[in-house]
Design a protein that fits this description.
Two copies of one chain form a homodimer.
Chain A lengths: L18 E2 L2 H10 L2 E8 L2 E8 L1 E3 L2 E7 L3 H7 L3 E14 L7 E12 L1 E2 L3 H15 L12 H6 E7 L2 E7 L17 E9 L3 E2 L8 H4 L5
Chain lengths: 214, 214
């Protein structure tokens, strides 16, 4: 089992039995998430911004406009915290105190760096498209030089990271087990609605029609 | 229209047409979200943690264990950034460059304070339960003194805040409009699965069976 070495800030102190340090489990959460929340410090104050991302082996990539304040700040090598959270359900306990959520989350600490290499940058753009939906990239035209120039890609190593996972039923106090209140879990998941076509008569590709994720 | 006064850090510079400063729109996003991402600075480095929350008029409440490192840090009055993001869909454009997400997000900056007043604390706990699902609180027993003691509730004013919203179809370059690739939007939304009962034979309450949100 490939474990990530703990550091003080990736060692979960609250409910440590929910902590997960296996790289495979961390990667699975990252690969399922569509957005991450990027935290950084600006003028000594925290800023948290949602954005899309992709993973390549031991790195997380984020990207955006080369004019983005967030990306320019991060590209300068400041500390960053990237968090990906998947909400899996609401846990209805017999007391307000024991209500909870089922979720899987990953927190990565580190410093990001700008991807300058043209080959790695193009590969990162491919990963973004394939992260959105596998199969997409091969249908799209190649990025234009101006698009590449307008896009900043940052790389964050998945080194100092941990996951936290809660699953299963409510954990109630013994005293509450006979309370006359419904208890259990309402599973939640992202589901897709009817596709809204913008193109004219182009057939919906299999990778969208049969997308097994949603 | 009740607008929140802009500050430098709530003024969106990237794609400013997606910015929203109406309090009603901000409140609607907050009220629909089930989790927020809380950002703060610890040892000069950013930390971003997901947690549940609730809103009361002009305040956001978060809560958790009185032993939580995050809550103790925040309760000491440090700067905090709370972000709530609702993912509404994937935007498939005709080029990789113009792919996007439809989403609604709120970012709140400020400092949190500990809710010491017993009445306000109890009201906040009611709001947490009612935020999870309206109707829940009245079925639950009152919190016990020990539970109240073990729970830390923090209050963050919704003063320095902004929302960002993207809706609608892809925005493609004119050159790409005849590209032979499907374009459009895949709407995404949190949906509930089959309820998993933990209690014995207690009827599913109407507020769960008919929950219109999922």
């Amino acid at each position: 089992m490939d474990l990530i070495p703990n550091t003080p800030r990736t060692t979960l102190r609250r409910i440590p039995q929910n902590a997960v340090y296996e790289r495979s489990a961390i990667d699975a959460i990252l690969d399922e998430g569509l957005i991450c929340h990027v935290g950084f410090v600006l003028d000594n104050k925290p800023v948290v911004i949602p954005t899309s991302f992709a993973r390549a082996k031991d790195h997380l990539y984020i990207h955006g406009s080369a004019a983005s304040r967030m990306l320019l700040t991060l590209g300068s090598g400041v500390d960053v915290c990237v968090t990906v959270t998947l909400l899996d359900g609401i846990v209805f306990a017999r007391s307000a105190f024991n209500h909870s959520m089922n979720y899987r989350s990953v927190v990565i600490f580190g410093t990001a760096s700008v991807v300058d290499d043209a080959g790695e940058k193009l590969e990162a753009l491919r990963l973004f498209a394939e992260h959105i939906v596998p199969g997409r990239w091969q249908e799209l035209r190649a990025p234009k030089p101006l698009e590449l120039k307008a896009t900043l890609v940052l790389r964050l190593p998945i080194e100092e990271a941990s996951a936290k996972v809660r699953t299963g039923p409510p954990e109630d106090d013994p005293d509450d087990m006979n309370a006359p209140v419904w208890a259990g879990v309402m599973p939640l998941a992202l589901r897709k609605g009817e596709l809204i076509e913008d193109s004219n008569g182009i057939q919906v590709p299999d990778y969208l029609r049969d997308d097994p994720r949603f």
